[in-house]
Amino acid sequence: MAVLAELDAELADAGELSGQRLEWTAAEAAVRELIACEIDRKTDIEQMYRESDDAKTRVKLSAELRLLEASAARLLKQVKTKLPEPTSRRSQKAARAARTRWERDGA
Prior knowledge:
107 residues; mainly alpha; elongated
């Protein structure tokens, strides 16, 4: 799968930039499998569309293709290959101050 290989390459690049070896989470691995299945299904339906001579069948297949494309796009948005930006020093200080207030008030 070209798409899965590209996702793996993006993850490897992000790992190199961060100096870490990154791996897919279980959820991301499952989503990657769903993406692969949808792409395979889309390929099969495209073949059926090309081979079909019946207008009604082509309309139904066309609708299915559009749904698969939208679904694959949604799934691809769920796979994150970039690490989140580190929190700024200012945010870290604010969070520490808030925790201190909460701990003091709760005691």
